[in-house]
Amino acid sequence: MYLILSSEFPPHSGGIGTCAYKLSKNILDQSIVLSASSRSDSKNRLDKDGVDIIRSSGRGVFNRFLFFVFNIFFMIKKYNINKVIIFDHRSFVFFSIADFFLFNKKRSVYYYGHGSEFVKTDFASSLFRFFLRKSDATILCNSRYTKGLITSTIRKDSYVVLLGGEMFKTSRVEKTDELNYIHKKYQKYNKVVLTVGRVDNRKGQDMIINLINDNLDDFRDILFVLAGPVNKKFWSRLKSQVPESVLVLNEVDLTTLEFIYSNSDFYLQPSRFDSDNGEVEGFGIAVCDAIHSGLIPIVSSHGGMREVLGGGLEQFVLKENNLESLAQVLRSTINLQQGEVEEYRQLLSRRASELSWENSRYKFERILRL
Question: Is pLDDT at 104 greater than 70 in this prediction?
Fold first, then answer.
């Protein structure tokens, strides 16, 4: 039995929660998930995919700590859990403190690194790095870029395990008012460029909005969809500048996610280093999903983003935090001839097979010694 700890978990989560969910759903047949997300709104133990999850609705660091300590202690005693997989740095800190004072038993601990927690200078990240250096945890990570950060800051080796994406297909779903509105919006434009992820400074959505406002004639027939939780402070500076051709979807559900992936044409993620918060983009899990869904991806050269694309797709990599490069790459991509699009989709199909869950399963099983 495996215990998975994550501060985020679907339905409202970013890359961290997505990684934890996909691991528990696709790789580990016997696992229990503890999620201490303050945005969690479900009280169900079993979700529709059969993932056994215990959620906390408490807010604040102290409440989350109590949640973890109580449930970790209870689960370890009840199920005799000897392997713990942790997906974010705060959960690792909580577990390390609880394990030191309460459990005092040798067990296998695995930490899956994402990137930002190895470079941020806030107290939680600094405390995390202290505990990780002192621990015997096996470190896994999402890219060679993140592996380099771990080597330089923690001075430990790590295993690179690229998490596979999945294809989103529109199945028979109950139409909602929101979905009907999105569908009508899609029908008004010739092509759709999709961006999925937290709307904040690191993801670079402000560059997209600035680009459109500066080149309205070039992109008048293109709908840009920004789907993901909105950072209120970041968005307050932008919302008055949003043009008609930008559709913002805050915290989309799975049905909406399936629709926008399967009905869009291109995927765009101009990620960059967030100097305000010290955050980096270690890997783009949403880009993997876009590749599996047949969308031509455009990504920045920042962090581990280039690694997602692999070889043969270099022309879709733009310079980090460079509006001119974004304009050039985006124009050339949306103006591709149909024959060129099909050729690139064949390359993407081969890349999707490399970014498969079978490959991820093999690597995880070898590391976890299942």
Answer: no
Helix, coil or strand: residue 83: strand
> How many beta carbons lie within 10 A of that of residue 244, not counting itself?
11
- Count of Cβ atoms closer than 10 Å to residue 183 Cβ: 12
Confidence of residue 266 (pLDDT cuts 50, 70, 90): very high
Distances (CA, A) of 51 to 41, 47, 231, 264, 332: 16, 6, 28, 29, 42
C-alpha–C-alpha distance, residues 156 and 133, integer Å: 8
Q: Which residues contact 240 (CB under 8 A, 6 or more apart)?
A: none
The model's pTM is 0.88
For the beta carbon of residue 278, count every other beta carbon within 10 angstroms. 15
Please state the separation of Cα 211 from the chain's center in Å.
24
Relative to beta strand 266-269, strand 108-113 is: unpaired
Question: Is the backbone peptide bond immediately before 10 cis, with ω within 30 degrees of 0?
Answer: no
Please, how many CA atoms are within 13 Å of residue 8, restricted to the half-sphere of its CB? 15
Q: Given the structure tokens 């765009």, which residue do they identify?
A: 268
| C-alpha to C-alpha distance for 7 and 15, rounded to whole angstroms | 11
Cβ(54)–Cβ(37) below 8 Å? no
